[in-house]
Design a protein that fits this description.
Oligomer: single chain
Bound molecules: S-adenosylmethionine
Mean pLDDT: 93
Helix content: 25-40%
Shape: elongated
Length: 244
């Protein structure tokens, strides 16, 4: 049964027109009145819904029963990557969503190739939020991770972060501990993971991150691309050990 994200809050028994993107999805599948779809609003659980009317562009549904199905990772992991350029950030958002990321804070750093501000940053955020929703439709997650608007690293480090989050920075420096050692023991500890862009973090940025409580961790001797490193760490944190 097709799974469709409807960002407006859903409730049992509601009659509603699907939002434009969701309606297009149903039209493309050439569905007919009486057929059913699974809807989720991104806030938890899913609903079975029956198509009641197919217009030229509008699709009406009746929302049925709510099923409190969750497919979240056992450990909450937030990523804060120095944004890779081009389609690599789309790829990072899609794969991180499938792997169970709790949220993503895209960062602009000294060596970032991709530098976004104002309206362009807002448009990109909306685009990435859509990529995350589409990944949830595909992989079965009913909670859509929040993708923040891109921010400068220094500005982001200055903002308060929940004190219960374990802060880690992916690092190629000699004193970085293996990630597996750093998080050994508590497979449910929530993690906030900072990583660098294509050219890495500058020495000054590494110093700022350490001063803000980010502990350096390594993924081994190979230099991974800016999108590979956070995804590899996320996979280990959400799928490795007894984390799922
Ligand atoms: N020449 C850059 C440097 O020396 O920092 C390479 C940057 S790498 C392409 C992008 C980011 O991925 C790094 O800043 C780091 O956060 C992360 N990274 C890549 N490989 C890693 C590894 N083996 N262990 C930990 N972090 C890694």
């Amino acid at each position: 049964m097709p799974r469709i994200h409807c960002p407006d809050p859903l409730s049992e028994g509601a009659h509603l027109a699907l939002p434009a993107g969701a309606a297009r999805h149903v039209q493309v599948l050439r569905m007919q009145p009486g057929e059913t779809v699974t809807l989720f609003d991104g806030r938890g659980g899913q609903w079975q819904a029956t198509i009641t009317r197919m217009g030229r562009s509008e699709v009406q549904v009746e929302v049925g029963t709510h099923a409190p199905i969750e497919r979240e990772a056992g450990r909450a992991v937030w990523l804060a990557p120095g944004m890779p350029a081009n389609e690599r950030m789309d790829w990072l958002v899609e794969k991180a969503t499938e792997l169970g990321v709790a949220g993503i804070a895209p960062l602009i750093t000294e060596r970032s190739v991709l530098r976004l501000s104002g309206e362009r940053a807002e448009r990109k955020q909306a685009h990435w939020q859509g990529v995350a929703a589409a990944a949830c439709e595909q992989c079965g997650r009913n909670r859509v991770p929040q993708i923040d608007t891109p921010r400068g690293l220094a500005d982001w480090l200055a903002a308060p972060v929940a004190p219960t989050l374990r802060r880690l920075v992916l690092s190629l420096e000699g004193d970085a501990r293996p990630l597996s050692q750093a998080v050994a023991g508590d497979t449910h500890e929530a993690v906030l993971l900072l990583s660098g862009p294509e050219g890495g973090l500058s020495a000054q940025e590494v110093g700022q991150a350490r001063a803000a409580g980010f502990e350096p961790v390594t993924l081994g001797p190979r230099v991974l691309r800016a999108e590979t490193a956070p995804l590899a760490a996320l996979s280990w944190l959400t799928l490795g050990g007894a984390a799922s």
